[in-house]
Amino acid sequence: MKIAGVNIQKGETKLINANIAKLPTRTEIDIPIYVSRATKDGPVLMISGGLHGDEINGVETVRRIIVNNYHIPTAGTVICIPIINIYGFINFSRQVPDGKDVNRSFPGSATGSLAGRVAHFLMNEVIEWIDFGIDFHTGGARINNYPQVRVNMADEKSAELAKAFAPPFIINSPYRDKSLRKEAAKKAKAILVFEAGESARLRKSAIDEGVEGAQRVMKHLKMRDSAATQNKQTVVISKSTWIRARSAGIHHSRVRNGEFVKKNELIGFITDPFGEFETEIKSHVDGYIIAINNNPVVNRGDALIHVGIADN
Questions:
Q1: Is the pTM of this model over 0.85?
Q2: Which long-range contacts (CB under 8 A, 24 or more apart) does 9-13 make?
């Protein structure tokens, strides 16, 4: 195995500082990649975070996997990348400096935009080697996602991997154009997207779910001997809908992430700042709360509550 010009033999664990660019100040920008290969043959698993630079939960999840040596397999190879989008991370931003989203720039180009170059590096230096991947994300723009794996359930290999992860929710999610997951799938590489928490914040429960889920995936792939058990039942969500604000004002939620709500159940209010009105918010479906907008100040049409509808 050779990544960014560095050879990794069986039985070796190496840190590769892969140079991808320079800042205008000529400061080198490297992506640290941790590769651990067992002496015994097995699958190659990528565990990555920080594809969106402000999604810190994912970065911390991968860090904890590394610091606890969970990334060292008994068989096969684990490639850990705590921060893919170094630019976004140091600028507290989802995007790279040119304003583009790396996860909408795959497969990328060696001569394209900055986001495209990062995507091209990842596709050609890492994705070519892997069999499976877990990409850790959070909600964006103050959206707090309850721990969930997003996967195309029509892909049996990916669906099996998602069930092995055993998150509270598995969301049947179509591929998005120019995303890492879609471009990897074209090469028969199954990548799970784990979403938990919100951008620019750490949430311990979300991180714990991610670390334990990664261990369960490794055990399922026979890459480690033990893993944390999941005491909760996984719910498979076939489709979802957003409940939106019917007026501008201040949003007061009355539900908690992860709980089940019934159709016509009162789930919150919108008030104006001056005490002149109070509007009830009711669910229009039976389902599970899989995300909540934590921004209290909302405009008409803003997404407030994401409700997942389970398979019958």
A1: yes
A2: 9/37, 10/37, 10/38, 10/39, 11/37, 11/38, 11/39, 12/36, 12/37, 13/37, 13/72
Cα distance between residue 185 and residue 177, in whole Å: 11
Tally of residues, the chain? 312
Distance of CA 67 to the CA centre of its chain: 20
Residue in the structure block whose two tokens are 């803003």: 302
Q: Which two tokens stand for residue 285?
A: 């479906």
pLDDT in tens, 115-151: 999 999 999 999 999 999 999 999 988 999 999 999 9
Contacts of 207 (CB under 8 A, 6+ apart): 57, 60, 61, 64, 196, 197
How far is 22 from 88, CA to CA, in rounded Å? 14
- Parallel, antiparallel, or unpaired: how do β-strands 44-48 and 77-81 relate? parallel
Residue keyed to tokens 């996967």:
151
* Contact (CB, 8 A) for 113 and 102: no
